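Troubleshooting log. The previous structure file for this entry was overwritten by mistake, so regenerating from the original sequence record. Sequence copied from the archived sheet and checked twice against the printout by T.R.
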Amino acid sequence: MGSSYTYPITGIKTAEIKRNFDIPIRKNADYWRLEQTGKKPRDENKSKTGTVPKTLTFWESSKDQKEWEDSLEGQEATTTINELATGPVYEDTVDFSENPQPALGAKVVELVSWVYSVDNITDEKKAEIDSGFKKFQKAITTEAPESDGGIVAGWGSAEFDFEGVPSKRYTLLIGWKSVQAHYKCKTTPPFTDNIHWLMDNGHSKVEMVHFPYSQSIKD
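Regenerated output below.
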C-alpha cells in the first residue's frame, strides 16, 4: 500500500434511510457526511456524533477499521443502518492511492464506481485500468474548467454478488463546481476524448451519484 497521507483507508457506506441517527466518532478516523439535497442539516453536531445517511470514513489503518467493525458500537451502527435502510446499502472499503479529501471540498462530489467480476480483475487488468485512470485524471484536472478539487480512484476490497457473479468495484471521487458543470464537461473534449480509458475495460455496471453537500464531522 503506497498511501502516505494520514487516513489512507476509506470506508464508504451510503443508503437511503428513514431517519437520521448518531454514531460515535473515534479519534483515529475522520468522518465526512454527504447529502444529496445540498442543504445544510439543522443539527450542527457539536458533540462527537454525526448524522449518517451517507458517510465516508477515513481510517489510519485497516486494523483500526476492523476494530471498529468488530466493536459493539460498530456492530450496532451497522445494524441500525440496515434496519433503517429503505433499499440496498452501498458499502465498500477503498485504498485510494492519493488523498481523496481535497475532492470532498468541491461544491459537488461525484461518487462513481465501475463494477467488475472478480475473475476479470487480474493484475494486468488492474494496471491497465489504473493507467487509463491517470490519463483521464490529467485531462479533467488540467483541461476542464468545470472540475473542482481533483479526482482520485482506488480498488475496493469488498466482494459482493452482482447478478450471481462475485464482483468488486473500482471507485472514483470527482469534485465538480456544480452538477450542471459536470454534465457540461461531459460534452467537451477533455471528457469525450478520455472517458474511454474508464469505459472500455469489460465492466459489468456503472454506479453514480452526486452529493451537493459534504462536511467533515470530525472534532
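The radius of gyration is 17 Å. Archived copy saved in two places this time.
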